[in-house]
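Predict the 3D structure for this chain.
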Amino acid sequence: MSSTTKVLAVIGESQHGKSSFINMISGTRDQAVGTGDGKSCTSELNPTKIRDHLRLYGNGETKINCDDLPGFGDTGMRMTNGQILESMKIRLAGLERRELDALLVFQSLAESRFELAKTFARLEEMFGPEISQSAIVILTKSDLVVPKDLKKKLPTIADILSPKNIPSVMWVNDSLDELVGETQKREQAASLRAVLAQVRPYEMMNMREYERRVEERARQLMAQDKSNTVTQTVTVPTKKQQAYTVYEVEEVERYVPKYSEEEVKALAQRQASRPENWNAEIVESTKTVAVDVFDVESGTETVETNSKFLWVFNVRGTTQVQTQKIVKRTEQKQVTTQEVQYSERDATVYEDDLRKEQRKEGVEIKREVTRFREIDATETAQVSMNKRDIDYYKKVASKKMAVENWQQGS
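Done. Predicted structure below.
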Protein backbone atom coordinates (compact mmCIF):
# COMPACT_ATOMS: atom_id res chain seq x y z
CA MET A 1 0.00 0.00 0.00
CA SER A 2 1.50 3.36 -1.08
CA SER A 3 1.84 6.41 1.14
CA THR A 4 -0.97 8.09 -0.82
CA THR A 5 -3.51 5.57 0.46
CA LYS A 6 -5.44 6.22 3.66
CA VAL A 7 -7.39 3.68 5.70
CA LEU A 8 -10.70 4.64 7.30
CA ALA A 9 -13.09 2.47 9.29
CA VAL A 10 -16.77 3.39 9.47
CA ILE A 11 -18.75 2.17 12.46
CA GLY A 12 -21.91 3.00 14.40
CA GLU A 13 -25.51 2.04 14.99
CA SER A 14 -27.57 0.68 12.14
CA GLN A 15 -29.43 3.27 9.99
CA HIS A 16 -27.12 6.14 11.05
CA GLY A 17 -25.95 7.01 7.53
CA LYS A 18 -22.64 5.17 7.18
CA SER A 19 -23.18 3.77 3.69
CA SER A 20 -24.63 7.08 2.45
CA PHE A 21 -21.54 8.86 3.77
CA ILE A 22 -19.24 6.55 1.78
CA ASN A 23 -21.26 7.18 -1.37
CA MET A 24 -20.92 10.94 -0.84
CA ILE A 25 -17.16 11.08 -0.28
CA SER A 26 -16.55 8.71 -3.22
CA GLY A 27 -18.96 10.48 -5.54
CA THR A 28 -20.73 7.20 -6.34
CA ARG A 29 -23.79 5.26 -5.27
CA ASP A 30 -22.00 1.91 -4.94
CA GLN A 31 -23.00 1.32 -1.33
CA ALA A 32 -26.54 0.13 -0.62
CA VAL A 33 -28.30 2.55 1.72
CA GLY A 34 -31.25 2.25 4.03
CA THR A 35 -34.74 3.15 2.83
CA GLY A 36 -35.90 4.48 6.17
CA ASP A 37 -37.82 1.33 7.08
CA GLY A 38 -35.42 0.51 9.93
CA LYS A 39 -33.84 -2.49 8.20
CA SER A 40 -30.03 -2.81 8.19
CA CYS A 41 -28.54 -2.69 4.72
CA THR A 42 -24.91 -3.69 5.42
CA SER A 43 -24.65 -7.34 6.40
CA GLU A 44 -20.87 -7.87 6.55
CA LEU A 45 -17.60 -5.96 6.67
CA ASN A 46 -17.24 -4.28 3.30
CA PRO A 47 -13.69 -3.09 2.54
CA THR A 48 -13.93 -0.67 -0.41
CA LYS A 49 -11.28 1.27 -2.30
CA ILE A 50 -12.68 4.66 -3.25
CA ARG A 51 -11.40 7.89 -4.75
CA ASP A 52 -11.24 10.98 -2.58
CA HIS A 53 -14.06 12.77 -4.35
CA LEU A 54 -14.46 15.44 -1.64
CA ARG A 55 -10.69 15.99 -1.33
CA LEU A 56 -10.65 15.06 2.35
CA TYR A 57 -6.88 14.69 2.07
CA GLY A 58 -6.18 17.80 0.04
CA ASN A 59 -4.94 16.96 -3.44
CA GLY A 60 -7.66 14.55 -4.50
CA GLU A 61 -5.09 11.97 -5.64
CA THR A 62 -5.14 10.07 -2.36
CA LYS A 63 -6.86 6.70 -2.46
CA ILE A 64 -9.04 5.71 0.50
CA ASN A 65 -9.55 2.20 1.78
CA CYS A 66 -12.86 2.51 3.57
CA ASP A 67 -14.13 -0.37 5.71
CA ASP A 68 -17.90 -0.18 6.09
CA LEU A 69 -18.94 -2.35 9.03
CA PRO A 70 -22.45 -3.63 9.73
CA GLY A 71 -24.29 -1.36 12.11
CA PHE A 72 -24.62 -2.10 15.78
CA GLY A 73 -28.06 -3.44 16.61
CA ASP A 74 -28.32 -5.21 13.22
CA THR A 75 -32.05 -5.62 12.65
CA GLY A 76 -31.49 -8.83 10.69
CA MET A 77 -29.54 -10.38 13.61
CA ARG A 78 -26.89 -11.48 11.12
CA MET A 79 -23.96 -10.27 13.22
CA THR A 80 -23.80 -9.45 16.90
CA ASN A 81 -22.07 -6.29 18.07
CA GLY A 82 -19.19 -8.40 19.35
CA GLN A 83 -18.83 -10.13 15.97
CA ILE A 84 -18.82 -6.77 14.21
CA LEU A 85 -15.93 -5.52 16.34
CA GLU A 86 -14.14 -8.83 16.02
CA SER A 87 -14.33 -8.59 12.21
CA MET A 88 -12.93 -5.06 12.44
CA LYS A 89 -10.10 -6.33 14.65
CA ILE A 90 -9.23 -9.09 12.18
CA ARG A 91 -9.32 -6.59 9.34
CA LEU A 92 -6.98 -4.18 11.12
CA ALA A 93 -4.58 -6.99 12.03
CA GLY A 94 -4.20 -7.76 8.33
CA LEU A 95 -3.38 -4.24 7.20
CA GLU A 96 -0.10 -3.93 5.36
CA ARG A 97 0.53 -0.44 6.73
CA ARG A 98 -0.14 -1.63 10.26
CA GLU A 99 -2.18 1.44 11.16
CA LEU A 100 -5.66 2.92 10.86
CA ASP A 101 -5.72 6.60 9.83
CA ALA A 102 -9.08 7.33 11.40
CA LEU A 103 -12.13 5.68 12.91
CA LEU A 104 -15.39 7.37 11.93
CA VAL A 105 -18.12 6.74 14.52
CA PHE A 106 -21.60 7.64 13.30
CA GLN A 107 -24.37 9.01 15.51
CA SER A 108 -27.77 10.01 14.16
CA LEU A 109 -29.12 13.18 15.78
CA ALA A 110 -32.60 12.00 14.90
CA GLU A 111 -32.42 9.32 17.58
CA SER A 112 -34.09 9.94 20.89
CA ARG A 113 -31.27 8.21 22.76
CA PHE A 114 -27.57 8.39 22.06
CA GLU A 115 -25.46 5.23 22.14
CA LEU A 116 -22.09 6.95 21.79
CA ALA A 117 -20.91 6.17 25.31
CA LYS A 118 -21.81 2.52 24.83
CA THR A 119 -20.16 2.46 21.40
CA PHE A 120 -16.88 3.85 22.70
CA ALA A 121 -17.02 1.47 25.64
CA ARG A 122 -17.27 -1.40 23.17
CA LEU A 123 -14.42 -0.01 21.09
CA GLU A 124 -12.13 0.49 24.05
CA GLU A 125 -12.96 -2.96 25.37
CA MET A 126 -11.76 -4.39 22.07
CA PHE A 127 -8.91 -2.05 21.06
CA GLY A 128 -7.87 -0.16 24.17
CA PRO A 129 -8.12 3.54 25.06
CA GLU A 130 -5.81 4.55 22.19
CA ILE A 131 -8.61 3.91 19.70
CA SER A 132 -10.47 6.98 20.97
CA GLN A 133 -7.52 9.17 19.96
CA SER A 134 -8.08 8.08 16.35
CA ALA A 135 -11.88 8.54 16.45
CA ILE A 136 -14.06 11.21 14.86
CA VAL A 137 -17.80 11.32 15.56
CA ILE A 138 -19.89 12.01 12.48
CA LEU A 139 -23.21 13.55 13.57
CA THR A 140 -25.77 12.76 10.89
CA LYS A 141 -29.41 13.53 10.11
CA SER A 142 -29.41 16.95 11.76
CA ASP A 143 -31.71 18.05 8.93
CA LEU A 144 -34.38 15.78 10.40
CA VAL A 145 -34.26 17.48 13.81
CA VAL A 146 -36.01 20.73 14.67
CA PRO A 147 -33.59 23.48 15.83
CA LYS A 148 -34.97 23.56 19.38
CA ASP A 149 -34.35 19.84 19.89
CA LEU A 150 -30.97 20.10 18.17
CA LYS A 151 -29.80 22.71 20.73
CA LYS A 152 -30.66 20.26 23.50
CA LYS A 153 -28.96 17.28 21.93
CA LEU A 154 -25.62 18.83 20.98
CA PRO A 155 -24.58 19.65 24.58
CA THR A 156 -25.41 16.10 25.60
CA ILE A 157 -23.12 14.76 22.90
CA ALA A 158 -20.40 17.23 23.91
CA ASP A 159 -20.60 15.96 27.51
CA ILE A 160 -20.04 12.42 26.24
CA LEU A 161 -17.09 13.27 24.00
CA SER A 162 -15.25 15.99 25.92
CA PRO A 163 -13.65 13.71 28.57
CA LYS A 164 -11.77 12.02 25.74
CA ASN A 165 -11.35 15.10 23.54
CA ILE A 166 -13.03 13.25 20.71
CA PRO A 167 -13.86 15.67 17.85
CA SER A 168 -17.17 15.65 16.02
CA VAL A 169 -18.35 16.87 12.60
CA MET A 170 -21.91 17.70 11.55
CA TRP A 171 -22.79 15.84 8.38
CA VAL A 172 -25.82 15.61 6.11
CA ASN A 173 -25.95 12.92 3.43
CA ASP A 174 -27.81 12.85 0.16
CA SER A 175 -31.16 11.12 0.43
CA LEU A 176 -33.28 9.42 -2.19
CA ASP A 177 -35.48 12.49 -2.70
CA GLU A 178 -33.11 15.35 -1.83
CA LEU A 179 -29.45 16.12 -2.61
CA VAL A 180 -27.12 18.18 -0.45
CA GLY A 181 -26.02 21.42 -2.05
CA GLU A 182 -22.48 21.85 -3.28
CA THR A 183 -21.73 24.66 -0.81
CA GLN A 184 -22.80 22.50 2.16
CA LYS A 185 -20.80 19.58 0.81
CA ARG A 186 -17.66 21.75 0.60
CA GLU A 187 -18.21 23.10 4.13
CA GLN A 188 -18.77 19.61 5.54
CA ALA A 189 -15.72 18.30 3.70
CA ALA A 190 -13.59 21.20 4.97
CA SER A 191 -14.61 20.51 8.57
CA LEU A 192 -13.89 16.80 8.23
CA ARG A 193 -10.61 17.51 6.44
CA ALA A 194 -9.41 19.68 9.32
CA VAL A 195 -10.27 17.05 11.91
CA LEU A 196 -8.70 14.23 9.88
CA ALA A 197 -5.43 16.19 9.88
CA GLN A 198 -5.48 16.34 13.69
CA VAL A 199 -6.36 12.82 14.83
CA ARG A 200 -3.64 10.34 15.61
CA PRO A 201 -3.52 7.11 13.53
CA TYR A 202 -4.18 3.95 15.49
CA GLU A 203 -1.19 1.62 15.28
CA MET A 204 -1.53 -2.14 15.44
CA MET A 205 1.12 -2.38 18.15
CA ASN A 206 -1.31 -0.53 20.42
CA MET A 207 -3.83 -3.31 19.92
CA ARG A 208 -1.29 -5.99 20.82
CA GLU A 209 -0.10 -4.07 23.85
CA TYR A 210 -3.69 -3.59 24.98
CA GLU A 211 -4.40 -7.30 24.57
CA ARG A 212 -1.39 -8.01 26.78
CA ARG A 213 -2.65 -5.60 29.46
CA VAL A 214 -6.15 -7.09 29.29
CA GLU A 215 -4.83 -10.63 29.73
CA GLU A 216 -2.67 -9.52 32.66
CA ARG A 217 -5.66 -7.86 34.32
CA ALA A 218 -7.85 -10.89 33.52
CA ARG A 219 -5.43 -13.23 35.26
CA GLN A 220 -5.46 -10.98 38.32
CA LEU A 221 -9.26 -11.02 38.40
CA MET A 222 -9.31 -14.78 37.91
CA ALA A 223 -6.87 -15.29 40.80
CA GLN A 224 -8.90 -12.99 43.07
CA ASP A 225 -12.25 -14.60 42.29
CA LYS A 226 -12.52 -17.31 44.94
CA SER A 227 -15.98 -18.31 43.76
CA ASN A 228 -14.56 -19.38 40.41
CA THR A 229 -12.87 -22.45 41.86
CA VAL A 230 -15.01 -25.46 42.72
CA THR A 231 -13.85 -28.80 44.03
CA GLN A 232 -15.55 -31.90 42.75
CA THR A 233 -15.13 -35.58 43.40
CA VAL A 234 -14.86 -37.29 40.06
CA THR A 235 -14.43 -40.85 38.97
CA VAL A 236 -11.96 -41.16 36.19
CA PRO A 237 -10.76 -44.14 34.19
CA THR A 238 -7.18 -45.07 34.82
CA LYS A 239 -4.69 -47.83 34.32
CA LYS A 240 -3.23 -49.88 37.14
CA GLN A 241 -0.21 -52.13 37.26
CA GLN A 242 -1.12 -55.71 38.21
CA ALA A 243 1.64 -58.11 39.24
CA TYR A 244 1.54 -61.75 38.19
CA THR A 245 3.99 -64.64 38.36
CA VAL A 246 5.22 -66.81 35.52
CA TYR A 247 7.72 -69.64 35.44
CA GLU A 248 10.43 -69.43 32.85
CA VAL A 249 12.49 -72.43 31.79
CA GLU A 250 15.91 -71.79 30.33
CA GLU A 251 18.26 -74.47 29.06
CA VAL A 252 21.89 -73.79 29.87
CA GLU A 253 25.10 -75.80 29.61
CA ARG A 254 27.10 -76.52 32.71
CA TYR A 255 29.84 -78.88 33.91
CA VAL A 256 28.91 -81.52 36.46
CA PRO A 257 30.83 -84.44 38.06
CA LYS A 258 31.25 -87.24 35.55
CA TYR A 259 30.65 -89.99 38.10
CA SER A 260 28.40 -90.37 41.05
CA GLU A 261 29.98 -91.23 44.40
CA GLU A 262 29.02 -94.87 44.00
CA GLU A 263 30.61 -94.91 40.56
CA VAL A 264 33.75 -93.30 41.95
CA LYS A 265 34.10 -96.04 44.56
CA ALA A 266 33.55 -98.83 42.05
CA LEU A 267 35.92 -97.41 39.42
CA ALA A 268 38.62 -96.75 41.99
CA GLN A 269 38.38 -100.31 43.24
CA ARG A 270 38.52 -101.61 39.69
CA GLN A 271 41.66 -99.62 38.93
CA ALA A 272 43.27 -100.69 42.18
CA SER A 273 42.66 -104.38 41.38
CA ARG A 274 44.43 -104.32 38.01
CA PRO A 275 47.82 -106.13 38.24
CA GLU A 276 49.57 -103.38 36.33
CA ASN A 277 48.56 -100.98 39.08
CA TRP A 278 49.79 -103.17 41.97
CA ASN A 279 52.56 -102.04 44.24
CA ALA A 280 55.92 -103.86 43.53
CA GLU A 281 58.31 -104.35 46.51
CA ILE A 282 61.81 -106.01 46.61
CA VAL A 283 62.16 -108.18 49.71
CA GLU A 284 65.64 -109.46 50.84
CA SER A 285 66.07 -112.74 52.80
CA THR A 286 69.08 -114.77 54.22
CA LYS A 287 69.26 -118.58 54.10
CA THR A 288 71.79 -121.43 54.34
CA VAL A 289 72.44 -123.30 51.14
CA ALA A 290 74.80 -126.13 50.08
CA VAL A 291 77.44 -124.79 47.81
CA ASP A 292 79.82 -126.94 45.76
CA VAL A 293 83.41 -125.85 46.30
CA PHE A 294 86.21 -127.01 44.04
CA ASP A 295 89.79 -127.13 45.37
CA VAL A 296 93.06 -127.89 43.53
CA GLU A 297 95.20 -130.50 45.27
CA SER A 298 98.96 -131.01 44.35
CA GLY A 299 100.80 -134.38 44.67
CA THR A 300 103.35 -136.82 43.18
CA GLU A 301 102.78 -139.91 41.14
CA THR A 302 105.12 -142.69 40.07
CA VAL A 303 104.80 -143.44 36.45
CA GLU A 304 106.59 -145.98 34.27
CA THR A 305 109.00 -144.70 31.73
CA ASN A 306 110.22 -146.37 28.53
CA SER A 307 113.38 -145.02 26.77
CA LYS A 308 115.77 -146.14 24.01
CA PHE A 309 119.34 -146.94 24.93
CA LEU A 310 121.68 -146.36 22.22
CA TRP A 311 118.78 -146.08 20.04
CA VAL A 312 118.44 -149.76 20.15
CA PHE A 313 117.54 -151.09 23.46
CA ASN A 314 114.41 -150.22 25.38
CA VAL A 315 115.05 -149.33 28.94
CA ARG A 316 112.06 -149.44 31.28
CA GLY A 317 111.91 -147.57 34.50
CA THR A 318 109.75 -145.38 36.82
CA THR A 319 109.78 -141.73 37.68
CA GLN A 320 108.07 -139.40 40.12
CA VAL A 321 105.96 -136.59 38.56
CA GLN A 322 104.14 -133.70 40.18
CA THR A 323 100.34 -133.84 39.77
CA GLN A 324 97.34 -131.54 40.43
CA LYS A 325 93.74 -132.49 40.69
CA ILE A 326 90.47 -130.72 41.35
CA VAL A 327 88.63 -131.91 44.40
CA LYS A 328 84.94 -131.16 44.85
CA ARG A 329 83.45 -130.62 48.22
CA THR A 330 80.19 -129.23 49.60
CA GLU A 331 79.96 -126.33 52.02
CA GLN A 332 77.01 -124.71 53.86
CA LYS A 333 76.88 -121.01 53.10
CA GLN A 334 74.68 -118.12 54.20
CA VAL A 335 73.34 -116.17 51.13
CA THR A 336 71.12 -113.07 50.77
CA THR A 337 68.33 -113.27 48.21
CA GLN A 338 66.01 -110.54 46.77
CA GLU A 339 62.43 -111.21 45.78
CA VAL A 340 59.82 -108.95 44.17
CA GLN A 341 56.54 -109.06 46.00
CA TYR A 342 53.30 -107.56 44.56
CA SER A 343 50.43 -106.10 46.61
CA GLU A 344 47.11 -104.44 45.62
CA ARG A 345 47.13 -100.61 45.89
CA ASP A 346 44.64 -98.78 48.16
CA ALA A 347 41.62 -97.77 46.00
CA THR A 348 41.27 -94.37 47.70
CA VAL A 349 44.28 -93.01 45.79
CA TYR A 350 42.20 -93.09 42.61
CA GLU A 351 39.04 -91.55 44.04
CA ASP A 352 40.11 -87.86 44.08
CA ASP A 353 41.05 -87.87 40.40
CA LEU A 354 37.81 -89.58 39.49
CA ARG A 355 35.81 -86.98 41.43
CA LYS A 356 37.54 -84.16 39.51
CA GLU A 357 36.51 -85.50 36.15
CA GLN A 358 33.57 -83.51 34.69
CA ARG A 359 31.19 -83.71 31.80
CA LYS A 360 29.14 -81.00 30.02
CA GLU A 361 25.39 -81.32 30.07
CA GLY A 362 22.32 -79.23 29.17
CA VAL A 363 20.30 -78.31 32.21
CA GLU A 364 16.85 -76.72 32.36
CA ILE A 365 16.72 -73.92 34.90
CA LYS A 366 13.23 -73.10 36.09
CA ARG A 367 12.79 -69.76 37.79
CA GLU A 368 9.91 -67.69 39.07
CA VAL A 369 9.53 -64.27 37.39
CA THR A 370 7.25 -61.41 38.46
CA ARG A 371 5.75 -59.43 35.63
CA PHE A 372 3.31 -56.52 35.40
CA ARG A 373 0.41 -55.76 33.13
CA GLU A 374 -1.93 -52.79 32.77
CA ILE A 375 -5.56 -53.29 33.64
CA ASP A 376 -8.47 -50.91 33.31
CA ALA A 377 -9.55 -49.39 36.59
CA THR A 378 -11.23 -46.33 38.02
CA GLU A 379 -10.29 -44.00 40.80
CA THR A 380 -11.87 -41.07 42.54
CA ALA A 381 -10.07 -37.78 42.87
CA GLN A 382 -10.72 -34.31 44.18
CA VAL A 383 -10.45 -32.00 41.22
CA SER A 384 -10.32 -28.24 41.41
CA MET A 385 -12.04 -26.75 38.40
CA ASN A 386 -12.65 -23.25 37.15
CA LYS A 387 -16.26 -22.44 36.38
CA ARG A 388 -15.14 -19.65 34.06
CA ASP A 389 -12.12 -19.63 31.77
CA ILE A 390 -9.69 -16.83 31.00
CA ASP A 391 -11.79 -15.59 28.07
CA TYR A 392 -14.59 -14.71 30.47
CA TYR A 393 -12.22 -12.68 32.62
CA LYS A 394 -10.75 -11.00 29.53
CA LYS A 395 -14.22 -9.64 28.76
CA VAL A 396 -14.66 -8.52 32.36
CA ALA A 397 -11.20 -6.97 32.43
CA SER A 398 -11.65 -5.11 29.14
CA LYS A 399 -14.99 -3.68 30.34
CA LYS A 400 -13.49 -2.57 33.65
CA MET A 401 -10.50 -1.02 31.93
CA ALA A 402 -12.73 0.76 29.41
CA VAL A 403 -14.90 2.22 32.18
CA GLU A 404 -11.85 3.27 34.18
CA ASN A 405 -10.19 4.88 31.17
CA TRP A 406 -13.41 6.68 30.20
CA GLN A 407 -13.93 7.96 33.73
CA GLN A 408 -10.34 9.17 33.90
CA GLY A 409 -10.70 10.90 30.56
CA SER A 410 -7.47 9.40 29.31
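The two ends are 32 Å apart (CA to CA).
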